[in-house]
Amino acid sequence: MSAEFALVGPILAAMFAAATPLLFAALGEAVTEKSGVLNLGVEGMMLMGAVCGFAITVKTGSAPLGLLIAAGAGAAMGALFGVLTLLLLANQVATGLALTLFGVGLSALVGQGFVGIPLEGLPKLHIPVLSDLPVVGQAVFGQDLLVYLGIAAVPLVHLFLYRTRAGLVLRAVGENHHAAHALGYKVIRIRFLAVMFGGAMSGLGGAFLSMDYTPMWAENITAGRGWIALALVVFATWKPVRVMLGAWLFGGVTIAQLHVQGFGIDIPSQILSMLPYLATVLVLVLISRDVARIRLNAPACLGKLFHPDS
Amino acid sequence: MSLIRLEPRGQASKAMVYATPLLAVALTLLSGFILFLLLGFDPVKALHAFFIDPVSSKRGIGELIVKATPLVLCAVGLAIGFRANVWNIGAEGQLTMGAIAGGGLALAFYGEGGWWLLPLMVIGGAAGGMAWAAIPAYLRIRFNASEILTSLMLTYVALLALNYLVHGPYRDPDGFAFPESRLFEADAVMPILWSGTRVHLGTAFALFAVAAGWVLIARTFIGFQIKVIGLTPAAAGYAGFDQKRIIWLSLLLSGGLAGIAGMGEIAGPIGQITPSVSPGYGFTAIIVAFLGRLHPVGILLAALLMALSFIGGEAAQIAMGLPKAITGVFQGMLLFFLLACDVLIRYRVRIGARRAVA
């Protein structure tokens, strides 16, 4: 086997890993947005998940507990957003920005004692024979549990949204909250749960970064991934399977950027680091130019406030 | 039926528009008190170190004005966009581009400057910020791409570009490979307006922006169009107002002002180009715009308050070893409380069961 070909396995493995935080965050946000709520605070929720998961794992030595707390921290941030936008009817765009600014500050405050502490990372799956297969072995059968969990969440979210009654109600609330309210559905309660689910998923995505991908805590460790996840939801036209494909695409761009340097191509590292952000803009442009398609797929009540009396 | 519920007011409450920012500040201070207590600091001493000590000297007040200057410049532009539902959240990137462009001119004419260099740098800074804001404007109008996401993505690109430049083309040739440019010559430095402090010409620009912003919003037809588009886009459509023009205008204006703010930082308090031109002025300006009720005069007051949170954070870090990240927590909390209190503008809080409707 040639040397270039031997690299394919590790590159694929790295791509799936790089895609995982985006996958979690974007899946959660897709459910939130399907219920008609636009939460721009993904970055802040991811950061809180990242720092809480890391801190708990360092303190207790238990990674599962760390992940649980990370999801809880993300959900708590989501609940904060819910109180402001659903109960107090604050502007969703402004509140989402506030959630991100608050999350950046609070995570730095919580995490200041944890900078520079190494963590072992989550255990990798190892299936004898399969994980040792050439090329695909490590990529497909040798990843961390969270990578599989993220992929498993895709069909689960899809089935929930499109094959269960609860999913149907959630989508109805997102399409027309007044009609759903008139039919007796609890619009605010359903949206609250959707926002908290989005928060928990963002928290897990952030925790994957700090507990496994890096694995360490640093201020602003997410580096804009929360915003890229938001763009992914639009790119995927709110469909879970496309969210996954989009996340892999971005994982690929991230990894390509690292490997170009490895191949000795002389481009400054800062220019290469721009690639994921520029790719996000490009992808957003390509998908948004089809206005009819966006209008057809976007939840009709996305970002609109709901008050039962009005 | 819940005991506490919201009853829509027939008309938005004017009094609450002005009362809620004060209420939000009070709640933030109260939360800060609790936060310091939880972190194990004497809350009275900590709040004093944070909010009073930094501004109890001439130098301190000067620093407050220096920090408020870029906040005002960015926030006035953002507020005009926010009024028209144009969500430029990439002011940090536009500020950085202003610094890159304005600073590039200072370096290009190093050793051969004159009186004309500084005005040229101001124009260059504004052009840099405008060019960076023109991208989201074009993508929004031509391709319907959300300016929220594109302007933010471009912020990361701008920060990386700055980082590349100070490590490469902009680096001081005699600087022992430090990622910094040369110190600017006198021709490329903002004149000081208040001796004994670092208050520079940029503050005059900021005050001019406040006045011009107020005239634009309150006294021109464009300001009226912005208001209508923001409140009822459909009505604006029927009236034949050109939404595209308003998107262009608000993004170019906010980008240009942010660019001047960035140029003012490198030609003012910093005096050279460094990898970090701003501690997040472009993001904090979003809070300033909301806290100032999207009104230029309100923004001026809000900017002073948020500037205090920056220098208070630094002072408390030095005096009491408080983590600097507290600044961000305070800023985020303030915006939360403001958004939460704003419910009082359009709704009354009613306690007790719903009365029967006749």
Automatic annotation (TrEMBL), chain A:
Q: How does it sit in the membrane?
A: Multi-pass membrane protein
> Which Pfam families would you find in this protein's record?
BPD_transp_2
> From the UniProt record, which GO molecular function terms apply?
transmembrane transporter activity
UniProt entry keywords in alphabetical sequence: Cell membrane, Membrane, Transmembrane, Transmembrane helix
Q: What is its main location?
A: membrane
From the Swiss-Prot or TrEMBL record, state where the protein is found.
Answer: Cell membrane
Asked if RNA-binding is a keyword of the record, the answer is no
Q: Which GO terms describe its cellular component?
A: plasma membrane
Entry's transmembrane regions: 6-25, 37-58, 64-90, 97-119, 139-161, 192-211, 217-238, 245-265, 271-287
State what protein this is by name. ABC transporter permease
UniProtKB/TrEMBL annotation, chain B:
Keywords in alphabetical order, please. Answer: Cell membrane, Membrane, Transmembrane, Transmembrane helix
Where in or outside the cell is it found?
Answer: Cell membrane
Top-level lineage group? Bacteria
> What protein is this chain from?
ABC transporter permease
Signal peptide feature range: none
What GO molecular function terms would the record report? Answer: transmembrane transporter activity
Instruction: Look up keyword Metal-binding and say if it applies.
Output: no
Pfam families named among the record's database cross-references:
BPD_transp_2
Q: List where the protein spans the membrane.
A: 21-41, 61-82, 94-110, 116-139, 148-166, 199-217, 246-267, 273-292, 299-319, 325-345
Kindly give the membrane topology term recorded for this protein. Answer: Multi-pass membrane protein
A single GO cellular-component term from the record reads: plasma membrane
Statement: the UniProt record of this protein carries the keyword Membrane: yes
